[in-house]
Design a protein that fits this description.
The chain is of the alpha+beta class. It has one domain: Gcn5-related N-acetyltransferase (GNAT) (Aminopeptidase, 3-Layer(aba) Sandwich). 34% of the residues lie in helices and 34% in strands. The protein has a 7-stranded mixed sheet with strand order 1-2-3-4-5-7-6, with helices on both faces. Strand 2 and strand 3 form a beta hairpin. The radius of gyration is 17 Å and the shape is globular. The N and C termini lie far apart (45 Å). 26% of the residues are buried.
Length: 188
């Protein structure tokens, strides 16, 4: 006997109102798995799930402008991944250059990783950016996130010269804890 599902086995679709709770759960679980050592448990424990949910809701129902998109990856009816992209306008001194895009978020639930959801989300995000005329993509990777670095390298992105430091609370020694991110990019 063959069993059929009512929904596709795996898919990527635009996020819709009501998805924000599952999206916040995915993001927080992925961050707790990937960033506990670098950010420290205090930072991750202090994250407000309701605030994260509200931010996703806002991104879905009232994006800050054209070209801001939010996607979800589904395994059957369950949301197992999230991604968001935004346009990057050309530099003011070169207004005729094609725009770029930034991958603001790409997270997959720990139990659903290495199943193709991240690749499907990235491909859909790139397709949307291309539709909007973007010719390049960049994203930021926290130092120490080796899994994300391997994933992005496998997708054709690589680190460039840009980096930034972010304050992430107070370390166990009572001193400010600073983490570093490097920008990864690729031509589309």
């Amino acid at each position: 006997m063959t069993l059929f599902r009512e929904t596709a086995d795996v898919s990527v679709r635009p996020a819709v109102p009501g998805d924000e709770h599952a999206m916040a759960r995915v993001q927080l679980a992925a961050w707790r798995q990937a960033h506990a050592d670098v950010l420290g448990p205090g930072v991750l424990d202090a994250l407000d799930a309701e605030a994260v949910t509200a931010q996703w809701r806002q991104a879905i129902v009232a994006p800050p402008g054209p070209g801001y998109r939010v996607l979800v990856a589904c395994d059957g009816p369950e949301i197992v991944g999230v991604a968001s992209v935004a346009p990057v306008p050309p530099p003011e001194d070169r207004p005729l250059e094609p725009p770029g895009g930034v991958l603001l978020a790409l997270e997959v639930s720990p139990g659903a990783q290495r199943s193709g959801h991240g690749s499907r989300l990235l491909a859909a995000a790139v397709d949307l950016l291309r539709e909007d005329g973007a010719d390049q993509l960049h994203t930021w990777v926290l130092d120490g996130d080796e899994a994300r670095s391997r994933f992005l390298a496998g997708a054709g992105l690589g680190p460039d010269e840009a980096s930034r430091e972010l304050y992430s609370g107070v370390g166990p020694d009572g001193q400010p804890r600073v983490v570093r991110e490097h920008r990864w990019s690729a031509l589309l």
